[in-house]
């Protein structure tokens, strides 16, 4: 139908030759043709030559849609580009700035883009960075990383036009921008690799971090002082108990005072290690066990009796809420072994083991190869203050305790590693 109408119009005109693109349907499909027609025989007849240009038309339509899409994408990019409070700069692959948003001008104290165009990041930075590194070498390294991997994030010191410096967080992103239509007013170079630099002024964040660090340092000093004073007070109590025991004639009462003194020492030792530790929230429990066992051996004067101490402790760090009850448990069980297991014997072995099972459970074992635990005593319902204290502390740790007395005495205690 399109071709028929075209020919009617041609014969009705005075033109001898005409060329035109027409749209027609062939077998239900829309086709585009470029037609050249010329009259002859005094205008009574005409000859026409047509070329199918359907593929070209489809390509032109696709290209037009792509250009429209690119223009819309650039419009959205420009909108975000100008709206963000972060400085956004576009750099060529050598690092020279060719465009930036308004926030960049405000951040660097500029009145127009001309003051920044063709500048390199090194020109907007002090000669050396906070870590002492040379600015030129460092920025070239970061640009190379961004071009190779796609992006690079780092902290940086920039310099404003007035000479003042400020800390910044920089994200360099490599991107390849497609060609843009000739009539597009954008300064973005079409089809070239560029770098987008997003710069965020982190002056306030750094100030806040310094204030937090200062506050933490003050709290650490305070905590150290608290642990120091608690340790001193516990040592005073221990000394008072020792002095009091000198005036006691009853051996049973003397033993009770000695046991109380050892308990106080076990707690004081936790605070002493926390005071000396770099990490005020946890103590090195392996070191603590060695120190506690050494103190108990000295208190009961067993070094000369030939009792051997075996300590097998995996590296572990416990907080004070776990270390104090666990230390008291070890104190009671080791004290019991030293008092009762090796009576009338000049030799023996006492073992302390501490380990972590799959990082879920702590496993504590205290045992000896002495005379064994009396079979007629239920350790969970014993009249002994020490054993009652052990069972109470195990419950406090939400743990379990078992006794094996086939070869000497062996207490096995397990409790969660996180309370």
Structure, described:
It is a single chain. Helix 8 (320-341) packs antiparallel against helix 9 (385-396). This protein folds into four domains: 2-52, no CATH class; 82-201, PAS domain (Beta-Lactamase), CATH 3.30.450; 203-279; 281-419, 2-Layer Sandwich (Heat Shock Protein 90), CATH 3.30.565. By secondary structure, it is of the alpha+beta class. The termini are far apart. It has a five-stranded antiparallel beta sheet with strand order 5-4-8-7-6, with helices on both faces. The chain has nine helices and 15 strands.
Entry summary:
By secondary structure, the chain is of the alpha+beta class.
Q: What is the structural class? A: alpha+beta
Give the CATH superfamily of the largest domain: Histidine kinase-like ATPase, C-terminal domain
Task: Using the CA coordinates, give the radius of gyration.
Answer: 43 Å
Low-confidence stretches: 179-188
Report the major sheet.
5 strands, antiparallel
Distance between the termini: 87 Å
Report the top-level CATH class of the largest domain.
Alpha Beta
């Amino acid at each position: 139908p399109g071709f028929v109408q075209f020919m009617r119009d041609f014969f009705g005109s005075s033109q001898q030759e005409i060329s035109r693109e027409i749209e027609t349907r062939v077998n239900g499909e829309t086709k585009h043709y470029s037609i050249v027609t010329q009259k002859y025989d005094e205008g009574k007849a005409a000859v026409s030559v047509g070329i199918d240009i359907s593929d070209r038309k489809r390509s032109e339509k696709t290209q037009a849609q792509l250009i429209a899409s690119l223009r819309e994408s650039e419009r959205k990019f420009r909108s975000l580009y100008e709206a963000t409070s972060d400085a956004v700069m576009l750099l060529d692959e050598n690092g020279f700035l060719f465009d930036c948003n308004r926030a960049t001008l405000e951040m660097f104290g500029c009145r127009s883009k001309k003051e920044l165009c063709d500048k390199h990041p090194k020109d907007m930075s002090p000669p050396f960075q906070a870590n002492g590194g040379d600015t030129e070498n460092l920025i070239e390294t970061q640009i190379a990383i961004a071009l190779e991997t796609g992006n690079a994030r780092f902290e940086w010191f920039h310099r404003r036009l007035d000479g003042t410096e400020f800390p910044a967080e920089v994200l360099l992103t490599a991107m390849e921008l497609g060609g843009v239509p000739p009539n597009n007013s954008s300064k973005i170079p079409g089809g070239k690799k560029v770098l987008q630099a997003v710069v965020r002024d982190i002056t306030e964040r750094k100030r806040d971090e310094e204030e937090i660090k200062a506050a933490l340092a003050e709290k650490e000093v305070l905590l150290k002082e608290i642990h120091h004073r608690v340790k001193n007070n516990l040592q005073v109590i221990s000394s008072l108990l020792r002095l009091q025991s000198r005036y006691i004639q009853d051996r049973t009462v003397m033993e009770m005072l000695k046991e109380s003194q050892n308990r106080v020492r076990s707690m004081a030792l936790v605070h002493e290690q926390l005071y000396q530790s770099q990490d005020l929230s946890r103590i090195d429990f392996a070191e603590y066990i060695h120190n506690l066992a050494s103190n108990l051996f000295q208190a009961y004067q067993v070094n000369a009796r030939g009792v051997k101490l075996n300590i097998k402790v995996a590296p572990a760090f416990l907080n004070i809420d776990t270390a104090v009850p666990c230390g008291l448990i070890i104190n009671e069980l080791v004290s019991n072994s030293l008092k009762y297991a090796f009576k009338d014997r000049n030799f023996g072995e006492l073992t302390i083991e501490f380990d972590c099972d799959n990082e879920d459970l702590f496993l504590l074992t205290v045992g000896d190869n002495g005379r064994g635990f009396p079979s007629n005593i239920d350790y969970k319902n014993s009249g002994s203050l020490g054993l009652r204290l052990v069972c109470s502390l195990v419950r406090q740790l939400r743990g379990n305790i078992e006794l094996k007395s086939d070869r000497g005495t062996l207490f096995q205690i397990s409790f969660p590693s996180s309370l």
